[in-house]
Amino acid sequence: MPRPGTGLGPWGTSRAVFWGSAAVVAVVSGFTILFPDTASRVIGAVQTNVVSGFGWYYVALVAGFVAFAIWLGAGRWGDIRLGKDDDEPEYPLMTWFSMLFATGMGIGLVFWGVAEPLSHYANPKPGVTGTPEQLAQAAMSQTYLHWGLSAWAIYVVVGLSIAYTVHRKGRPVSIRWSLEPLLGDRVRGRLGDAVDITAVVGTVFGVATSLGLGVLQITAGLDHTGIATSSTTLQVVLIIAITGVATLSVVSGLDKGLKWLSNINVSMAGVLLVAVLLLGPTLFLLREFVQSIGTYLSQAIPLMFNVSAYSGAEGEAWQAAWTTFYWGWWISWSPFVGVFIARISRGRTVREFVGGVLLVPTIVCFLWFSVLGGSALHRQLFGGGGLVGPDGEVVPENALFDLLAGLPGGTVLSIGAIILVALFFITSADSGALVVSMLSAGGDPHPPTPLRVVWAALGGVLAIALLLAGGLTALQTAAILIALPFSVVMIGMVVSTSRALHAEHTAFLRAERRQLRAQIDEQVSRQLSRQVDHRVDRRFDERLSRWRRSRERGGR
């Protein structure tokens, strides 16, 4: 619990974490708002340098995370419970899925559901050639790569490490404590502060990226339906308004606000998915879903390790705009999503956690892109087209509404999609502010209300700043850059989690062997005792028989 009157956590480090991370966010936001042109040039230079220097690193790292997650789920540590041995899961299975899914993907799914497959089809990755149908299939496989096992494996690494630390070891809800098996008591000092500051800043930037994408799509939807004209002013007003609603939700707490919003989000997303499936080319979409899974699985390893090494500057630019951006985005989101998933996963085993976080959302993401993206590709290939510009341009924020406009009841579906994006916007801002507040309150799972309000507001301000500095490009660059330092923390989490689980499993095996030895010793003792007793009884009986016979002879 916090110390009375301070709003600080019990470990006495939240002051450094809060002021350090708040200063970084405030300086970046202020500089970007005051000098947008300079900020735009800096962002462009940073993107070029980071991608050219570290694109290969992101690809190799995420592939390693996938292998690690699968190994954890299938390995000998899978039965270890995230909590006490007799703990039951805190939330029902479907509620758990809804909360982790709404938080883990949210706005991005709606924003890119139509736009990404269309973009890969209209402007294929350098080196990808073929017929239009082959390009469409390659587009779905590339989309599956970005939203499938790789993305959720990142969340498994962070979420499981924190869940084990918090629920099994009783540590505060904080990133630093997941590194305790590796760093020891140093997590209590400045090094631990630096880890938490990195996590907080990464979370705020990751959430701001999502908020920026969300407001781009909301304004596009309002413009598309004729409700309002898209403009920078409208975008800023929407960010302020929706951040205000998110602040009210985060103040109400996890069970009241976020649980309720998550269930509504997933329900509305399900309605939109089913509507597009039934109103579109249903049988084609179902066939495409099955086929695309097979194609993705057959190409998963080559896709996962592809860094466009032989595609020159064009391939490097493509890699920066897509795969490197996504890996950076997921990593920058991972402190926030990892802490949140850990918070709601008490009572589940390691195997349940990995299976639930890695496999189920991946399949749902595949279905989402197959239905929405598949509908767009079908229209472009076999229908009236019109979703790709004459120069091959796809406007991401407009793509969903262009698709829905061609379906029966398109206006109603578009309005529903706008509401869905707004709700995902609120969920992301809500859960992001809650997690950042936990981290900056020393790991307190119930951080002070003023702290939640401050972080919700700072997230909105940063989203506005990034939009003013360059829109989508600025948002993508922010995600890639912030992910770089936290990726080092994630490597430490892999090592720490492995050490902790190995130590517990080894201790369990030793205890099991001691218990087995004790049981064997007890059984042997009982057996020997029975044998001795039997021999004594037999000798006694023999002597008694001889004595009786001698008495009988003496009597005669």
What features would you describe in this structure?
The protein is mostly helical. The chain contains 17 helices and no strands. It has helices at residues 14-34, 36-74, 93-104, 107-122, 132-147, 149-168, 180-183, 190-224, 232-252, 254-279, 282-305, 312-321, 323-343, 350-382, 396-405, 410-440, 449-555. Helix 1 packs across helix 8, helix 9 packs across helix 10 (254-279) and helix 9 (232-252) packs parallel to helix 17 (449-555). The protein is elongated and about 130 Å long.
Topology readout:
Layout: H1 14-34, H2 36-74, H3 93-104, H4 107-122, H5 132-147, H6 149-168, H7 180-183, H8 190-224, H9 232-252, H10 254-279, H11 282-305, H12 312-321, H13 323-343, H14 350-382, H15 396-405, H16 410-440, H17 449-555
Helix pairs in contact: 1-2, 1-8, 1-17, 2-6, 2-12, 2-13, 2-14, 2-17, 3-10, 3-13, 4-5, 4-14, 4-15, 5-6, 5-11, 5-14, 6-13, 6-14, 6-17, 8-9, 8-13, 8-15, 8-16, 8-17, 9-10, 9-16, 9-17, 10-16, 11-14, 12-13, 13-16, 13-17, 15-16, 16-17
Pfam families: BCCT
Transmembrane segments: 16-35, 55-74, 95-115, 144-166, 194-216, 236-254, 266-286, 324-341, 353-371, 412-441, 453-472, 478-495
Keywords: Cell membrane, Membrane, Transmembrane, Transmembrane helix, Transport
Summarize this entry quickly.
The chain has 17 helices and no strands. The protein is mostly helical and 556 residues long. Helix 3 (93-104) packs antiparallel against helix 13 (323-343) and helix 5 (132-147) crosses helix 11.
